[in-house]
Amino acid sequence: MKLSVLLIIAAIVLLASCGKDERPTRTAIPVERPHVQFTCKGNDKAWTMDVGDTSAVFQLNEHTEAYSVRNVFPVSDGYIVFFNGETTLTLHKEACSDSAGTKWGYSAILANPVDTVHGCANIK
């Protein structure tokens, strides 16, 4: 009889402790893509780029190329824009002057596997 009472008490204790889940829960918070648009102008080569929410147009001399904007990530001092392929635009919040002496709010580095160009940018 003592054994059956002990088993019943042990079962009650086990069942009571199994009801609570003490693990912390995590809730996914959707991150919205920032809606920022940029105008960029090159210093070392005559290039320009207009970046919209979903697409961008790059022009270097007579060459024009269209890109799809995949992601825009705000970072501590600017933005990183990822395009189709391995092309990225990195913008740093710092004073920048183009070859004509125009003041811009960001420095810009446009990089792809073939080339890297430097310039300035502003948010539209």
Describe the structure.
It contains 1 helix and 8 strands; from the N terminus they run αββββββββ. With 124 residues, it is mainly β. The mean pLDDT is 81. Strands 1-2-3-4-5-6-7-8 form an 8-stranded antiparallel barrel. It is globular. It has a domain at 38-123. Helix content is 14%, strand content 50%.
Question: What average pLDDT do the residues reach?
Answer: 81
In one word, what is the shape?
globular
Radius of gyration over C-alpha positions, nearest whole angstrom: 28 Å
Q: Compute the number of helices.
A: 1
Q: Quickly give the structural class.
A: mainly beta
The string of secondary-structure elements, in order, is: HEEEEEEEE
Number of strands: 8
User: In whole angstroms, how far apart are the ends?
Assistant: 83 Å
Layout of SSEs?
Elements lengths: L1 H17 L19 E5 L4 E5 L3 E6 L2 E13 L2 E6 L4 E10 L5 E9 L4 E8 L1
Antiparallel strand pairs: 1-2, 1-8, 2-3, 3-4, 4-5, 5-6, 6-7, 7-8
